[in-house]
Amino acid sequence: MRTLRIRYLGGPTFVLEYGELRLLVDPTFDPPGEYPVGARVLRKTAGAIVGPDEVGPIDAVLLSHDQHPDNLDRGGREFLRRVPVVVSTPAAHERIGALGLQPWESTALGGVTVTAVPARHGPPGSEPHTGPVTGFVLEGGPATVYVSGDNAALELVEEIAQRFPAIGVAVLFAGAARTPLMDGAPLTLTSEWAAAAAARLGAAHVLPVHFEDWAHFSEGRATLAPAFAAAGVADRLRLLERGQWWEPVLHRETV
Fold first, then answer.
1. Mind listing the pLDDT tens digit for each residue in 18-29?
2. CATH 3.60.15.10 applies to domain 3-242
3. Which of 254, 250, 241, 249 lies closest to 7 in space, CA to CA?
4. Distance CA 100, CA 63 (A)
5. pTM for the complete prediction?
6. Domain map of the chain by residue range?
7. CA quadruple 175, 101, 4, 168: dihedral positive or negative?
8. Which residues of 136-174 are buried (b: 16+ CB within 10 A; e: fewer)?
9. Greatest alpha-carbon span in the chain
């Protein structure tokens, strides 16, 4: 059975049922509180909508990066022990033993092709400070799916759109995350940039995630719909509530 369903769990975390696989993206399960990142502290404002025992069986985890607790927290790290495969960056391979893919490198999982695609976690020059991150493109299910990871570079979105012109569903990490690390520059897509990314990708369905539940997000649910409307792509926005399942209506198979 070739399915495509997404359950948004809050923060960057969502279950993706794709083809015959059940995937979990960026697992985070810890309660609200303060979480240090080097000399900085990130503050979580809402707990997980479900616990690790309620997620159900998972065939693989897609992990945008392992170095920040808002994308992989203590509960998420424990959860990784339960799954057969974790796909992430080469740096995550060195640190946690994940299958580390370079940009544009692919792996096959149960009839699904997972390709790592480039992402930049902040403005140009931020890489040494924020560390390596990756996005993913999935092919082999009912539609091609793009998962952006913590990417703030529209020029990379343009390159991904050129290489994968048939993306049907895009999951965009938004929220315009800001910390003192890069003088307050957005470390993830602003709402306006997310709308611009939606237009460039041409995806029929765009699901924002990672725009709430942490104090360092400067934009969120209230800014996304106006930005998509201003860009003329309001009909593509699928703004889910925490815990909500979503399944697209697909008129034809695209891979």
1. 999 999 999 999
2. yes
3. 241
4. 10
5. 0.96
6. 3-242
7. positive
8. bbbbbbbbbbbbbbbbbbeebbebbbeebeebbbbbbbb
9. 50
